[in-house]
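Task: complex structure prediction.
Instruction: return structure tokens for all chains below.
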Amino acid sequence: MTQENEARVIDLVRARAEGPSRKTRARRIIAIGGGKGGIGKSLVSANLGIALAQRGARVVLVDADLGGANLHTCLGIPQPAVGLSDFVEKRVARVEELLVPTGVDGLSLVSGASDGLDAANPKHSQKVKLLRHLRTLDVDYVLLDLGAGTSFNVLDFFLVADTGVVVMLPEPTSIENAYRFIKAAFFRRLQGTLPEDEFAQRVGTAIAPRDGSPARSPWDVVADLRLTDPAAATRLEHALGGFHPWIVINQARTRADFDVGPTVASAWKKFFGLELGYLGSVSHDDAVWQAVRSRKALMHAFPESAAAGGVLRLAENLIALDR
Amino acid sequence: MKSFQSQTHYEVLEVSVGADAAEIRSAYARLTRLYAEEQVALYGLVDPASAELLRQRLKQALEVLTDEARRDAYDATIGLPPRDRPGAPKAAAVPPKPVSPATVASTGGWTQGFAWVSAPAPAPSAPTASVYSVPARVASAPSPRPAEPSAAPTPVSVAQAASAVGASTPALSSAPVSVTVVPSSPDAHESPAPAAGSAPTVWAAPRTPSPPTSAPATPEAPAPPGESVSAPAVAALAAPASEASASTADVGVRDETRPVALAQAEAPPEPATSMESRPALGASGPSAPAEAAASAVDAKPAPDRAPAEAGATDPRLDAAPVPTPTAADAAADTDVRRHSDDAEVSIVPARATPREYRAEPRPRPYEVPAGVEFNGDLLRQVRMARGLTLLQLSERTRISVRHLENVEGDRYEALPAPVYLRGILMNLARELGLDGLRVSRSYLAFVDARRAKG
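Output:
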């Protein structure tokens, strides 16, 4: 795996617009990320999958947290015999063969669990192939449970999805990492859509200046650029659109915690003029802890709990995106 | 969408240019709470200096916008028309030459196209209401009316009308009133009547101290036009000079919600000739017609004006596909409370009312006054004012960027057949918070006119 190879960004434009001639297509690919570890990405993904399936959608959960996969545990099923590593290492030709039932109608799992050495670091070409295959799955939703951190692997999966969901806890460490994650994804996207222009760098310097000067928005960069290179300014202006992640607050305890989500969204908009949606909050709940302890899915073990209610609302809001 | 550094005071506070002091204060209170230093949601987003900058910017905006004099000066610097208290000096400076609506809009930016009018409210108890007005010619009545010049106000006639009416009802003339003076300008490709077009038009929007009224009903007002006839029109009927109403009809301003005709109609002497002698500077004395209008209104206050106002405010037409977890989060609240009762600590305070969340606050729809025609340029202005790029709009509406560009560029020949174009326009208008029916009807009229010409 060379450095250039890794730095190459998946062709998002082509991946998104596949034209009317496509055969089958997953209606919506949702990536669930969030920078920090241990914030409940996998729990949210698993239970969101169940909630969507309970609403009648056909859902595939993909454990893209290569090297740290435990979606199966969150779902309360044993580790599947096949997983992404089989696809990556070409033991299996089609993603469909990786699907394992989860005991929930309409919900299948593509496990990422593997004890192999290399499975956590797929090559660029394998990543592209995997995403292409996921896109052809004939289901309503593909949920990608991403790993922690802001590595290119994670960001590319996040960006290639139709909907990016960022999970965060209402506490400084998590919020800090979530912003870092969103910014990194945003830069990566700029880099990917316009590799010949050095927009990512320019915008990066504006949003997160290192010299202590106040942060500026990408639109200020557009305005600056307009003076020297109007064509480039227009390209950047176009590239800035379309980045619209959604945030989910997990483990909200107080009233103020529930307010964090909308505040994050409006602060992001206020400072950078970019879109950020608020999908909902899941309250802090001992039921979650108990469910994990008993290795059962929260939605099954404690369907009446506050946290399960929060997950259900997330599902409703996701479904509403397609209306 | 601009960041706060390049936003106007109004944008920073997220209020409309017509917001009154109370609205501005409450917006400030809300935003300072939202972006307070201890707000955890800001952590890691920007450095503390930038956050402090935003707070200063909010404070500055508050200070400027709540100080009438400073606000007027600020409005002038950002190209807003004067918030016309009577005798505002800027009114006279409006150039008399005919300008196309496109020029008006593009020289001064979006906000100049639609003047905001407010009264300085001389009576301290009078509530400050706000009124949107349109530059007269943007209204582009498709058929030019030769009769119009005779009704054009002149400084003399207006003043006389005022004194005449004011004399009869002297006590009432102190009612708070707002007036704006806008040059009417013929639509470049439609109106061959320059004389009518170049005449300044005075609009008087009277106010009574009782319930706040918003004079011209805005297009979004769901009330049928008959009901939304606003104060001045009512006043015209009650005006002491009975010929006023007659000539109001004569002027034939096609929109009955428009108060324009009133002040004009009450000018008996100096009919058509005065227009040539002092065309534009007639605008310099807006206080006089204001009084005329005010007294006329006060002669018969119309109690049913409040509904028009209610209908006009913020119907939130924006139909962006955002989930609205309002009820859901209210439920979340109770969930938490219930659950934390089970747990050892109950941190969540009990709340009487359910909370309301929106995924994102929806922008207020622009109150484009009735009679304004939507051409591509205006749609572009609205889009820019919304802070949307073509690409963003394209993604939201699923209309291709090429079509959007052609719509905004008024390249009618490159647009699809009217049946498809109509769908595009409806969709586009909905996304921009405009009335789809109006936009498509208006735009398609332009298209038809162009196609008829060849």
